Amino acid sequence: MIEDGKKVRVRLCGVDSRERGQPGYGQAAGDLSRLIEGKEVACIQVGGGTPCDGRSKKTNRDRIVAQCFIGDKEVGMEMVCAATGRDMLEFSAGHYATCKR
């Protein structure tokens, strides 16, 4: 994500996905790239009205933790529905447990 001309790293709130070096990482990273590449992504940092408010920190490993959208599509929900991410119940309170398309 780019904000004020600076690159900002984002972790999707309440969504767990494969990390670099883990099986399935390439597919998850490719799916996310195809979803967001060339599009305007709007993110709300934890504490600003996300499903993770009160359950997640605002930052994690030099990344902001946020709920992100492309228009009316929620990026985390898209990842969970595509099975390249999973709902982290302890942070999302089950927000992503069922795909709401």
Task: Give an overview of the whole structure.
The chain has a single domain (2-92), classed as OB fold (Dihydrolipoamide Acetyltransferase, E2P) (Beta Barrel), CATH 2.40.50. The protein is of the alpha+beta class and 101 residues long. The model has no long low-confidence stretch (mean pLDDT 88). It is globular, with a radius of gyration of 13 Å. The strands form three sheets. Strands 3, 5, 6, 7 and 8 form a five-stranded mixed beta sheet that branches. It has a two-stranded antiparallel sheet with strand order 1-2. It has a two-stranded antiparallel ribbon with strand order 4-9. The chain has helices at 25-36, 75-81, 89-92; strands at residues 2-3, 6-7, 10-12, 15-16, 42-45, 59-60, 63-70, 73-74, 86-87. It contains three helices and nine strands.
Helical residue percent?
A: 10-25%
> What count of domains describes the coordinates?
1
Question: How would you describe the shape?
Answer: globular
| Average pLDDT | 88
Number of helices: 3
Largest sheet: 5 strands, mixed
- Beta content comes to 25-35%
User: What assembly state would you assign to the polypeptide chains in this entry?
Assistant: single chain
In short:
This protein has a single domain (2-92), classed as OB fold (Dihydrolipoamide Acetyltransferase, E2P), CATH 2.40.50. It is 23% helix and 27% strand. The protein starts with a strand and ends in a 9-residue tail after the last helix.
